[in-house]
Structures are given as C-alpha cells and as structure tokens.
C-alpha cells in the first residue's frame, strides 16, 4: 500500500524521471503535488503497471493533483550534462513548473541536488512507496512513451514504438544496420563491441 505523505508537510511534491537507460530520445521528468485525500486503486510504480493502466491513470492524476509539471531533457542536453545530471535538471524544471510552491520534495532514487531552499529527501524505490512519486513516474513514463511513438514515425526501422529507445537486441541491431539518428545519445555506447560509433 502506497503512503500519501513522507514529511508531514501538506504541500509535498514527489518527483521521478523516465528514460535514463535509453539509447535514444529524451529523459522525461515529472513532479506532482497530490491532495491529502487522493486515492486510486491502480496507482503504483509505473514499471509495475501495464501501458493501459498508465494511460488510464494519467488523466486522473492530472485532474486531481493540486499541481504537476513535466519536463523533457532532449538527447543533446543529456550528452552535454551526462544522464544523472540530466535527470536532476529535469526534476528541477518539473518542480519549477508547479503552480504551487512545495514545502518539501521527495525524490525517487538516491541522488538529487537541493532545489532553491526547499528541503528534500531521496527515497530508493520511492515510486513503489509514495503516491506522489508513483504519480510522477506515471506522468514521466506516459509523456515519454507518447514522444517515442511520435518519433517512431520518422524512423520506424528502430521500432521505438515498442522498445521506447531502450537497448533491446532489436534496437541495437537496427543501429548496426542503419547507423545512429539525430535522436540517439552520442555519449552512450550504442553498440557494445564499438568504442566509438561513426556519426
């Protein structure tokens, strides 16, 4: 059973990201502040949910949250910053988008940098423990999946509609066959046996 609150502060924002381990596309982060009476029987860590359940949850979260923000860190910036910094930057930008200033921030994982003067706590597997982080994980994942399906139409041979840019065997095979696209992260090892891919 997910808990609603960690800090005791009413305006507690949960934040999470999706797409850190992908070879292509953006890292997408989200931040959510939920009301103290929020509940939904489906809500869980987005990785535990089917796509259908995530799609069902997204409008419910957006409608019932006190505030939410979603930000995209595209592959060029991921390459520039490194993927961990890109994740933290994305979470910060999502928090900045909230139309209510949170009193406390809970973060999925174990790495974060203070945002303004707001106190925070990192929580390993937080998306399976707290509702606001789980809600942020659902938003980050659904927005990212939607984006990957859109760019799939430009480059269908990589099958991003299905693999969402993750390093599946099929995705790596397509990179081997067709090379990298502008959506691929140049700082990532796209093919295991190559130290550097000619771009």
TrEMBL record:
It is found in: Cytoplasm. Signal peptide: none annotated. A divalent metal cation binds at residues 16-17, 108. Residues 10-199 form the RNase H type-2 domain. Keywords: Cytoplasm, Endonuclease, Hydrolase, Manganese, Metal-binding, Nuclease. GO terms for biological process: DNA replication, removal of RNA primer; mismatch repair. Its EC number is 3.1.26.4. It holds the Pfam family RNase_HII. SUPFAM superfamilies: Ribonuclease H-like. Manganese or magnesium. Binds 1 divalent metal ion per monomer in the absence of substrate. May bind a second metal ion after substrate binding. Belongs to the RNase HII family. Endonuclease that specifically degrades the RNA of RNA-DNA hybrids. This is Ribonuclease HII. It comes from Tenacibaculum lutimaris. The lineage of its organism: Bacteria, Pseudomonadati, Bacteroidota, Flavobacteriia, Flavobacteriales.
């Amino acid at each position: 059973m997910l808990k609603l609150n960690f800090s005791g502060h009413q305006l507690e924002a949960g934040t999470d990201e999706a797409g850190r381990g992908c070879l292509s596309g953006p890292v997408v982060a989200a931040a959510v502040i939920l009301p103290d009476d929020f509940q939904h029987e489906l809500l869980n860590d987005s990785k535990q949910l089917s796509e259908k359940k995530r799609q069902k949850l997204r409008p419910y979260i957006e409608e019932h949250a006190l505030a939410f923000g979603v930000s995209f860190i595209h592959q060029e910036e991921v390459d520039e910053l490194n993927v961990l910094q890109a994740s933290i930057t994305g979470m910060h930008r999502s928090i900045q988008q909230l139309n209510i200033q949170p009193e406390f921030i809970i973060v999925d994982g174990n790495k974060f940098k203070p945002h303004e003067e707001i106190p925070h706590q990192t929580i390993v597997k937080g998306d399976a423990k707290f509702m606001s982080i789980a809600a942020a994980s659902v938003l980050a994942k659904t927005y990212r999946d939607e984006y990957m399906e859109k760019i799939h139409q430009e480059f269908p041979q990589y099958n991003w509609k299905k693999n969402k840019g993750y390093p599946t065997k099929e995705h790596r095979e397509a990179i081997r066959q067709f090379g990298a696209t502008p959506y691929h992260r140049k700082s990532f090892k796209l093919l295991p046996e190559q130290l550097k891919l000619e771009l």
